[in-house]
Every structure is written in structure tokens, then in C-alpha cells.
Amino acid sequence: MPQTIDDGRRAGVSSVADLDGFAARFAALPERLNGDAGLLRRGRYLNATCQFDIGGASVLLRIIDGRIAELQRNPSATPSADFAIIGEPAIWRRFLAADPPPGDHDLFAFLKRKELRVVGDLHPLMSHLLYWKGVLAHLRDTVR
Amino acid sequence: MNAPIEPVVGRYVHIDYAGRPYRLYFESAGDGIPLVCLHTAGADGRQYRGLMNSAAVTGRYRVIAFDMPWHGKSSPPAGWQDEEYRLTADDYTGLIMAVIDALGLDRPVVMGCSIGGRVVLHLALRHPRAFRALIGLESSAHVDPYYDTGWLHRPDVHGGEVAAGAVSGLVAPQAPAADCWETLWHYMQSGPGVFKGDLYFYGIDGDVRADIHRIDTARCPLYLLTGEYDYSCTPEDTLAVARAVPGAQVTIMKQLGHFPMSENPALFLSYLEPVLADIAARG
Predict the structure, then answer these.
(1) Would you tell me how many other CB atoms lie within 10 Å of the CB of residue B4?
(2) A106 touches chain B (CB under 8 A)
(3) What ipTM is given for this predicted complex?
(4) Distance, in angstroms, between B277 CA and closest chain A CA?
(5) Which end of chain B is more exposed for a tag (fewer CB within 10 A), N or C?
(6) How far apart are CA A139 and CA A25, in angstroms?
(7) Sign (positive/negative) of CA torsion B30, B190, A85, A10?
């Protein structure tokens, strides 16, 4: 059973609540990210909440001073985030694959093809772009 | 002390362009056919450090890399503080020709990457008899902007860090970590607004789609090399140029991205050396 800091649904883990198989990746994220000293230094002034939308499921990731303060799976119907990264499960699956092929290896490649979208206040994303790319790398099966 | 000293020599050349004086930094190494190397947007001539230290290249080519004004060790012209830097096709081609003239280079080979890969297409159209050959790395006729370049120059976002973040994924995953991060360091060192100003040429003013069919490779051979991991100038973008320009020779490079000469110099040289041999054999 994937461990999360909070699960808005708690009971009745469905395929949606299980984030189409991505729950384990997010559950492992705090330990991986908080153990990455270089990334923590890069994000030390960052305070922001990012929402990952995977089809009909969501994860809220709240960062305080570069560390994961909260990871909420399937939050309430009215989640509050600074920005969201939105895509269908099949797209996320390609993006998070180990050793992705050319064109599937970077967030901006998916944005360019409009397969992933970012919406909201992009300042926390763009001001800490290398940090967020590092977070996404930790969601991958293997970290470069 | 027997510390290694590279054969690379750096000097400054003074030119006048469009009525303004410029003091431009350039590095060179080797002897033989002049090979002028053009760096990418928001970077500088250090990207060609691998080429300058390759005896296989410098044995028959004089490799020259100059920093464009506003880049690297080439300062902006006097009065820059009251201007917004924007690179245009006219100024880019004009500055390159002015440097070639100032250095007294006779029919050099010009090799450029990204914006440099684009401008060689402009050079082929405007000055087809001036070059022994042209080499476009990550060369496209046009690229649609895919993010708001306004983020690259604003006081509440570190311009160097966002520029590095914007291009980091353009480096192939197989690049050695040291070369990857050195490539990104060059971006982090870029002056305020310079990367954004270069992208004006890349995304807007340098669009050459309507004209590339007029490039005559019989007068000026054209070689195109693009990394498979480049999603800015994609292999398909380069192949589209090749389809429009009869005689253009294309290589899609495995395990390389948008900065082949800088992100993985050794692997890039394995692709470049046959091209340089071909050019040298043409005489």
C-alpha cells in the first residue's frame, strides 16, 4: 500500500485514487527529494504548492523552503495550488518512464507538443525551473 | 611545473559595425582551413572547447570561435544601458561577415549551432560565394516559440538560472555530467536579457522558410547535423531543411541533443570529423 502523508479519499482505493499506478512514485518522493542535498539547496527559498493532474486524479505537493511539507493524494474538490501540471495517464507514463526515448525526456518537450500543460501562476515554476525538473526526475523509475 | 596548457589562444579584435565600435573576443587553435564557429543563443565560444583541443581537427583546420557582442568576453557596445538587446537577421549576418573580414579569413568554413545553425542558412542565401562550406548544427528554418520568453528577463526571476532550466532538457541524457553542467553554466553566466534577445532571431526575425529553396549547394556546400534529443530544433525540422535544399547533406546524431559540441565533445567529433574530411577533400 503506497504511503501518503494524506489521502483526501482515504477509503476505497480505486484505480483513480491510485493515480493509475503512480501512487507509489509519489509516496517515495519525500524520502528521495528530502535526501537530495543539491536539490534542497536549489530550492531553499521556494514556498509553493504544485498540483499534478493525472487524468481524473490529482496530487498536491506543498513545498516549504525547498522541502516537501505535504503530499496530498486526491485532494478536495476545491484544491488550492499555485500551478498545476496536467496530462493524461498515458502521457505521464511516457514522461516518467525509465530512460525515455528522444522527445519524451523533458517537461518542455511535452509542453511544446501540448501533451502536458502547466496552468496557474508560473512564477514558482519558472523561478525554480531546475528544482522542479529535479523533482520530476525523482518521480522517474531511474534518476539520471 | 608541467601543468597542461591548451593550444587555444584568446585575443580581441576591434571592428566597426553599423557605425559603432565593438571589441570582440575570439579564440583560435590549429592551422589550415579557417573554421569559424558560432555559439548558441545566450552562450559563448567556450562551447567549442572540445573542437579546439582536438588534434585531429586542428591538424588541418584553424578553428576560430568568437563571442558575439553581449556574449562571453565581448561586451555590449557603448550605450547598451539604454537599449534592449534584440538580435536580427541583418545584424547577425552583418557581424559575422565583419569579423571574417577583420580577421582576414579567405573563404572560411562557417559552422554554427542553434541560432548559429539558422544563420548559416542566411549566409548561404546572402553570401554563397564567401564560404568553402557551411555546417549547420541543430539547424532549422523556423521554430515556433514554445514558452513565454518574457520569463528570461525580469527582475524577480534569476535570468541565468531560468535560462539554464529552460535549456537543460535539450542536453541528451547520455551527456557526461561535467559537460552537461558546464554547458548549463555558460547559460547561467549570460548577461541580463541576452538569451531572450537572441531568441528574437531564433523565433521571429530569423524565419527563413520562404527562402531556403534558393540555397545553391553547388556554390556553397551545406552540411546539417542534428542531435536526436533536440526537441527545440528537432531532427524533423532539419530534415525539412534538407528536403528544401537539394544537395544538403544530413546527419542525425544519436545520443546527442541541442549542444553537441559542448554537451558531449568526443561523441560529436566522431560525427564531425567525416564532414571536415569531406570538406578538406573538396579543396
Answers:
(1) 5
(2) yes
(3) 0.94
(4) 29
(5) N
(6) 6
(7) positive
Q: What CATH number should be reported for the domain holding residue B67?
A: 3.40.50.1820
Domain-located, residue B1: no
Cβ <8 Å between B169 and A106: yes
- Look up the domain containing A27 and give its range: 6-139
Q: Provide the whole-model pTM.
A: 0.94
> DSSP labels for B165-215?
HHHHTTS-TTS-HHHHHHHHHHHHTPPTTHHHHHHHIIIIIT--TTTGGG-
- Contacts with B231 from chain A: Cβ below 8 Å: 102-103, 106, 108-109, 112
Residues 6+ apart with CB under 8 A from B94: B17, B18
Helix (H, G, I), strand (E, B) or coil at B233: coil
> Domain total for chain B?
1
Please give the residue range of the domain that contains residue B74.
9-282
- B182 by Cβ neighbours in 10 Å (0-12 / 13-18 / 19+) ranks as middle
What the block records as the C-alpha cell of B245 is 535544399
Euclidean distance between CA atoms B42 and B67, whole angstroms: 10
**Inter-chain touch B164–A130, beta carbons under 8 Å:** yes
Q: Is the Cβ pair B231, A108 closer than 8 Å?
A: yes
In a domain, A144, yes or no: no
Q: How far apart are the first and last CA of chain A?
A: 26
Q: Minimal Cα–Cα distance from A31 to chain B, Å? A: 24
Task: Kindly give, in sequence order, each residue whose CB lies less than 8 Å from that of residue B184, ignoring residues fewer than 6 positions away.
Answer: B164, B167, B168, B171
Strands B33-38 and A83-87: unpaired
pLDDT digits (tens, 9 = 90+) for B34-90: 999 999 999 999 999 999 999 999 999 999 999 999 999 999 999 999 999 999 999
Is B2 inside a domain boundary?
no
Q: Chain B 123-182, CB below 8 Å of chain A: which residues?
A: 146-148, 151, 156-158, 161-162, 164-166, 168-170, 172-173
**Euclidean distance between CA atoms B253 and B77, whole angstroms:** 37
Q: How far is CA A94 from CA A57, A111, A136, A139, in A?
A: 17, 13, 13, 12
Pick from A105, A106, A127: which is nearest to B157 by CB? A127
What's the grid cell of residue B52?
A: 579546439
Q: Are B162 and B150 in contact (CB under 8 A)?
A: no
| Cell numbers given for B149 | 520568453
